[in-house]
Design brief:
It is a single chain. This protein has helices spanning 54-65, 81-92; strands spanning 9-23, 29-43, 101-108, 114-118. The chain is of the alpha+beta class.
């Protein structure tokens, strides 16, 4: 017997592009074009059969990435991609309506290299 929808965990994600520049460990400058993926989760679905409104999640991500586009991460107080993923996770989490929660923010570059910050359970 298949589990009921209310017993399952569902995820919803949005992706947006983001180009940033940061100083690498060897002191050189690196620029990357990332795909930023934001993943939310909840047990069961709401009355509309969704985890949360995608438009709200997209708008929140767009607001957070706008001031970072094409800038040096150090200008925003960030050391590199890991700091960027962590900061986005921290800034976006409060805007996700309960019972949904933000579970991950991942950055993937054009070569498929990925770094992710995950919320504790």
């Amino acid at each position: 017997m298949a589990p009921e929808k209310s017993d399952l965990y569902f995820q919803a994600a949005v992706e947006r592009p983001l180009s940033v520049v940061f100083r690498a460990a060897d002191g050189s400058w690196e620029g990357h074009d990332y795909r930023v993926e934001v993943v939310t989760e909840r047990k069961g679905l709401d009355a509309l059969d969704v985890v949360m409104d995608f438009r709200d999640l997209e708008a929140a991500l767009d607001r957070r990435r706008a001031p970072l586009r094409g800038r040096l991460l150090s200008e925003a107080g960030l050391g590199g991609p890991a700091d960027l993923a962590r900061r986005l996770l921290e800034e976006l989490a409060p805007g996700v309506p309960a019972p949904a929660r933000l579970v991950e923010v991942a950055l993937t570059d054009g070569r498929g290299c990925r770094i992710a910050a995950k919320s504790p359970r």
